[in-house]
Amino acid sequence: MYRKKHWPAWLAALTVLTAGLVAGGGTAHAESNGGTRVMPLGDSITEGTQVPGGYRIGLWQRAAAGRYTVDFTGSQFNGPGSLGDHDHEGHPGWRIDQIHNSVINWLNSYQPRTVLLHIGTNDILQNYSVSTAPSRLSALIDRITSTSPGADVFVAQITPLSNSGQEAAVRTFNAAIPGIVQSKVNAGKKVHLVNMHDALTTADLIDGVHPTATGYDKMAATWYSALQSVPGSIGSPSNGRQNVLIAGAQSGRCLDVAGAATANGTQIQLWDCHGGTNQRWTYTASKQLTVYGNKCLDAYGQGTANGTRVIIWDCNGQANQQWNLNANGTVSSVQSGLCVDAAGYGTANGTLIHLWACHGGTNQQWALRN
To answer: Residue 117 in contact with residue 89, Cβ under 8 Å?
Structure first.
């Protein structure tokens, strides 16, 4: 049975939670948007040591930009606001055998459609029966595929290590993985090889083991490419975003037509999310954000300066009513390039919404939620 608590959220959501808990890691209420369940599974490189969220940040953002609805899943939880779903199954310091011992419970609890497996680094760092690590990996893959036979399992050749002796062991371990994966494929299993090692160099490591932010983003790109190559592994791209709430990553409050008014020129504000019609937006193929079915989010007077009010107006198709929904969670004006911004970093009910030069701050990051 799928046990995650459902917090409906469209893929581009940048969930707002207590900053210290999110960044620092730990367990928390699970997030779910009803999308394709993907379990990032492994050790500290999955958890995102040194860069909380790790590769999951860039992978989430790429999926969002591609209009895939992905639900990361797992018992662990960390990452920044630019990561829309903080769930994962990354365990710092864990070896293959430790993942093996717990994986059945995780798979049964979260029922992933897709598993991203990056494991083996700690077997080498701890010099733990390194010569038999490939056989342990093979057994782990068998346990995953027998427990979740419908899941696609992506098995990564692990990332480099700066220590030359340990890197030699990495290369030996990695060299065994293609044959392991092929044996599973020959047995009819849905297992796929991902060459993660060659995606990074030791220059991409912050401490000789864990990637830098750039290194993690290279991992994200590699995972995303692999997922796109297997139809259905992350579902299908959405054709649109309809009747959604737009919540601030900083405030947790929603874009709201003040007083539920329908008059042209009514300014947009922040307000507690309640799901009323004055908070329900649809993003159209022509890049309009409509409310009430016939009013559009509009830059007042076709303004292009900082501080331009964001209002509603009869939809007319002009550039000041066209918006880009960006992978980093910002919403920018096609006409001016400025971003939808909560004035003065305000978080209270009634904080006015205007345009401002894009800087990626949390008062410019927005979540599209069902």
So the answer is: no
